[in-house]
């Protein structure tokens, strides 16, 4: 494999399989919804063996959260602007943009689906939450290291993220920049 | 019908039918989940004609929100304690108790289901939201009439209700009295 191929296909075969499986999951969610497809359906759609999925992800719930986390990290990455206000405004704006789109309720739907899917579902939900909380915590830790007075990650969840999600869930959008910045300013 | 019968069966036949239909909906949600049953299923279970349901509720979505609203009004009624702080603490505590229970995600599930069910679903979701907002607004209006400095209903949604719902959705309970009172105190 030459350098150009590596750049185009980082990680090689394993990464290609992951991308195909992720795409299959995204398609199946969009076409059928959560709880309406199995690991076998994902495998068939992605053109891989069931065992490849079980070996890599363990179960469907873990795969679903991996797909969601990959999407979240791509669309609403944790920013590093050099100031807490800048980071929180950038992050809140990215989340607002994401959840105002056609797939806006994706994370809420996933959490609802996982919450009603036994211990594996609850574990996957908790892992997803913990991973995003850990990322947010690193933003807040950086602010504290710069000497800024940073809130707790749970405060950001409660008073910046939760209001935006609930407004979208109950059809109270759009989330204007004034509204989103206002949530951040109120916290700071 | 004598007075004792009236007290036992307020509204007579119409109320009995409504109660049976509501119970049928509750059972079907619990057994099958949203999106997995029709008006015909509800009618069969309640022992009434489909046409009785259509005549009274118009469609399944309106019936679902009627059931949810009846439950909300019974379990988390808007209080009237004589002070804004008392009203908000009482209301927040009732919501926290309700959503910490086994049916905790019922309202979130309903909102998700209605949000993906076309114009009738969106209308029913909006009606449900508007009715509860109207009730909350009357609590806030009473506070203003007493000369208290009351927040907007949307602020209560954003900073008292939304955090509690999102914490339950992501498995971050229990909602302790200290936490719930803290949300109210922060707002006041």
From TrEMBL, chains A, B:
Pfam families: TetR_C_11, TetR_N. Residues 15-75 form the HTH tetR-type domain. Residues 38-57 bind DNA. Keywords: DNA-binding, Transcription, Transcription regulation. PANTHER family: HTH-TYPE TRANSCRIPTIONAL REGULATOR RUTR (PTHR30055), TETR-FAMILY TRANSCRIPTIONAL REGULATOR (PTHR30055:SF148). This is TetR/AcrR family transcriptional regulator. It comes from Yinghuangia aomiensis. The lineage of its organism: Bacteria, Bacillati, Actinomycetota, Actinomycetes, Kitasatosporales.
